[in-house]
Design a protein that fits this description.
By secondary structure, this protein is an alpha/beta fold. Helix content is about 30%, strand content about 15%.
Length: about 180
Amino acid sequence: MVSTRSQQPNSQDGPTEHRIDRVEYTPSHTLFTDMQVLKAMWFPSIKGSTHQEQLESFYKTQAHLYDSYRCRMLHGRKPLVQSMPASSGDVWVDLGGGTGSNLEFFGADISEFKKVVVVDLTPSLVQVARERVLTNKWANVEIVLGDATDQNLEGLPAAGSVDLLTISYALTMIPNW
């Protein structure tokens, strides 16, 4: 799902809109890593009394392998990102963004965004996202551990300042949405 803030068209005398390019992103995998993920998915040991604890118990053993398997299973992620009307200077919030893999489709052009915020409830997925941000030296990306349904969550941009809002494959993981 992509939601955009309506924008006023540029006047003829104003600056032209600069669209942000996308790149290919396909993480590597092996039969062994695929089998590790399948084992975690088929024989989960889900524990905990809170939704966050239950999600963490499911993803913790596979967080470091999440992208290598899910990129071949979740086929709508690439078309979602490819169709985003992203322009230079936009503020993008990716709710339920997990490992931050959606950012990879922008490559170095992620710096064209004014700000990117990835929100997820699962600590192990958030840790992978934070490592991704550090590895890529993305200064304009913030990773927020928290509930996507909490409108007062610390780290979210101010109301009315977000240009793009995405949710990819997380909506069914949010209770009472």
